[in-house]
Amino acid sequence: MNESYAGSTFGGRRRGGADGWPASAVWEAMEQIRGQFEQKAGTRMGRGDVRAAVLAVLAEKPAHGYQIIQEIEERSGGAWKPSPGSVYPTLQLLADEGLITATELQGRKTYALTEEGRAVAAEAADRGAPWEAQGARSRPRVGGLPKAGVDLAQAAAQVGRTGTPEQVDKAVAVLDEARRKLYAILAEG
79: burial class by Cβ within 10 Å (0-12, 13-18, 19+)? Predict the structure, then answer.
């Protein structure tokens, strides 16, 4: 790794793991990358979308809260991951409305639709799931890209913390090549 790269990016310090970067600077850089992806990608949907998404997931099978969050994230291609702070109150509201029931199963609350809940979910299915909505489809920059970027930053940080100087140099070359290839994709069309 050349000194100008290390100096300009990580404060010019050459201490840290394996003659690598200072760990705090690497984590700070990763947080900046993650923050940029979240700002550009956006993980919020409109009001009522959490409710519709929960009903759509439960229409297929009973699930606990964390499974519902994971299903929504997966079905939206990573574009939307509702927070537990929006899902669990929605589950409580749906239970209060008599649309779902909660049963304790293996130490977790598992939620399932009631008959009335199935009718509401079937009615909502005609409008499509929130992750299929026009707003979600019109944002082509979201999907797996934020996660892939964060995963890449984590791998780079690991090499920086534990790699030998030769491994760090190879990683820098790989990242430089990846950057060039990404810009080439934009240049294509």
Answer: buried
Classify residue 154 by burial, with Cβ atoms within 10 Å: 0-12, 13-18, 19+.
Answer: middle
pLDDT digits (tens, 9 = 90+) for 56-108: 999 999 999 999 999 988 888 777 888 888 899 999 999 999 999 999 978 88
Backbone angles phi, psi at 139, to 5 degrees: -115, 80
Strand partners, 103: 110
Distance CA 166, CA 163 (A): 8
State the pTM of this model.
0.50
Report the alpha-carbon distance of residue 34 to residue 175 in Å, rounded. Answer: 17
Closest listed residue to residue 61, CA positions, set 71, 52, 50: 71
Q: Which of 47, 52, 41 is nearest to 143 (CA)?
A: 41
Confidence of residue 137 (pLDDT cuts 50, 70, 90): very low
Distance (Å, whole) CA 34 – CA 81: 14
Count of other CB atoms within 10 angstroms of residue 118: 15
DSSP H stretches of helix in the chain: 3-9, 23-41, 49-60, 65-75, 84-96, 115-125, 134-137, 145-162, 165-188
Q: Which domains does the chain have, with CATH numbers?
A: 3-42+145-188 (no CATH), 49-137 (1.10.10.10)
* pLDDT value of residue 121: 87
